[in-house]
Amino acid sequence: MTTVHHPVWGDEGTTAGVVLDWASNRVVRPTDPKTTARTATELSADAGVTITATGIGGAAALRIFDEVLAPATRAQDDPLNLAYIPSAPTRAAVAFDAATSAANIFGGLWEAGAGGIWAENQALDWLRSLLDWPVESAGGTFVAGGTLGNLSALHAARATARRRAGGRPDGGWKVACAASAHSSIVAAASVLDVDVVDVPTDDDGRLSGANLTQALDRHPGIFAVVASAGSTNAGIVDHLPSLTVLCRERDVWLHVDGAYGGAALAAPSVRHLFRGIEAADSIIIDPHKWLFAPYDCCALIYRDAALARAAHAQHAGYLDHVDRESPNPSDLAIHLSRRVRGLPFWFSLATHGTDRYTTAIETTLTTARAVAQAIRAQPHLRLLREPDLTVLLFERLGWDETRYTAWSREQALAGTVLCLPTVHEGRMVLRLAFVNPATRADDVMAALTTLAD
Predict the structure, then answer these.
(1) Nearest to 267 by CA among 367, 359, 390
(2) Which residues contact residue 281 at a Cβ distance below 8 angstroms, ignoring those fewer than 6 apart?
(3) Average per-residue pLDDT in the chain?
(4) Going by CATH, does the domain composed of 98-352 fall within 3.40.640.10?
(5) For helices 354-376 and 441-448, what crossing angle results, to 10°?
(6) Pairing of strands 139-143, 174-177
(7) What one-character-per-residue DSSP string does 303-359 give?
(8) How confident is the model at residue 1 (pLDDT cuts 50, 70, 90)?
(9) Domain ranges of the chain
């Protein structure tokens, strides 16, 4: 293989080789769920000065990363990492992420990254088919994460409402959601300078049409409603049929936050929970959560992509020559420069096939149900609600916040399991989130036996 001796950087072939060797070994290496974060002071002491006038060399930089920095991070893909919403990418997706970076494709405009964007669109079209949205009008792009996806969708919703209304309403614009909505909705509302209408949920914790009707009647100016398809804290899927009917009647944009739970559209056993989603206006689904892609990758899809282009397309002297016959990702979200972050997801889908994805998702659902059943059988544990998807909330009878926090910390430091406390209905409880098909129910319950002490 011929390497290039760059006039400034020199011959980087050796450095590139050892870095790729490290990456190759990491892809197949076992992981553990230990909490290994260290303070900046500790890291500075062990790593030393890394940025200098003459450089420390690739070998030294890689050694610091391998021995000091990487061990101070948490393995998101470990089967017993059940905290927050973890990530469990396929090895194929992780490996192709390196290829994606090596290709260095500009994915903002079709004319610069047509091949990569085409592949991303193939993966997006599979998700679109799960939504049963029209192939003629639907479209989307991959963005960095759910926060940017939600912000971009709500910007498109507001721009659409403003155009239809002919301006800003008296009292300003508002977005409606339940308190269980992801924190990024409040953040997006702040960026957009709109108010948030907190809609009460029903007795089962779901946002539904009945309660939303009252909010729409009392708060003029609501331009969008955000529904959860798998809330982060409890995994709840809101009552989409009644929400879509009402939003259609009132001409209000319905955005679905399916960052975590949207993947379950591919699972026949829970597909019924998403009835009505075919009439929503936009959705986000994070492949880096439950669709086995590496960070960072959020699919943002619109039922009518033309509305998104009208809101997001950037125009400037240097962009006037851009060919807009083919959809440009830069026209569909708040971004211009972007990497083709959907390529690792596409590669894994192409490699394994969608049937294998359905099997993987159903496997995690089965595991969550088995653990839920085992929790019910323990006299000192109480399952707080029947899971919609793969998030379990439960309590250890007689424990308080101090005991929960101490137990969680002990298990994390020992590398037994990552299970963090959360707040549910005003009190602290324990939470498990399953997205890894390699997680075994028996291993989880073995780790939870320490709760009996």
Answers:
(1) 359
(2) 157, 247, 253, 254, 255, 302, 303, 304, 307
(3) 94
(4) yes
(5) 30
(6) unpaired
(7) SSHHHHHHHH----GGGTT---SSPPGGGSSS-SS---TTHHHHHHHHHH-HHHHHH
(8) low
(9) 37-70, 98-352, 354-452
